[in-house]
Amino acid sequence: MRTPLIAGNWKMNGSVERIRAFGDAFAGDCLPAALDVAVIPPFPYLQAAQQSFDGTPLKLGAQTLNPEPAGAHTGEVNAAMLAEFGVTCVLVGHSERRQHYGETDADVSRRAEAALAGGLTPVLCVGETLAQREAGATRDVVLGQVAAVMEPLGASLARHLVIAYEPVWAIGTGLTATPEEAQATMGDIRAWLAGRDAELAQSLRLLYGGSMKADNAAALLAQPDIDGGLVGGASLQIDEFYAICQSA
Ligand code: PEP
Asked: Which residues does the record give as substrate binding sites (predicted)?
């Protein structure tokens, strides 16, 4: 019913050579048909990726966007620019953007709206810090981040989103939420969506992110409300990423 999605966030890593190696490795029908796979490299590699991924099942994503249509925003790129290079999805609200670049829920909401207006799928990243988890605030924090973006959207736009639950304490740390911990929060997200729109809750894809690897992916992806993964470090290695895709 929901096509699984595995998305590899390369963060500030990679090279043209690695892009080409992924294009070669994923050429042909090497992945399950009912699976979406996206690679999300840094901006400078989008053009090489557009060329190298042509004829492969790999879709192309971007790590952020600026919500403004054009103008004096040095260093930024907008949705139309990303679309010109074949980008189909874009991360919004990744915890590293929230933590290190001061993105607020309001900023994330504007980015999601700009992505949708530009025909891109926003992958809305939400998740609690360790302190918030230990304070028992996980549900409130995560649902607050979801609501900030989803509430202003009408149902027809909201159904184009993907939500990635990424506990901040699990990102890049080697600590993974147990399948049960991930399912508990992602079940809360699905229930919140159902409270707004039952059809939306059934169709919207929820990804887990946070030290997903080949050896823990299958157990996470077996949970009823986990429809895929947002993979950081493990998405840089072809064999590891390929194995995660095969688990979906
Ligand atoms: C991420 O950057 O979204 C992520 C989940 O990273 P990692 O898999 O390395 O924890």
From this structure: 9-11, 172, 211, 232-233
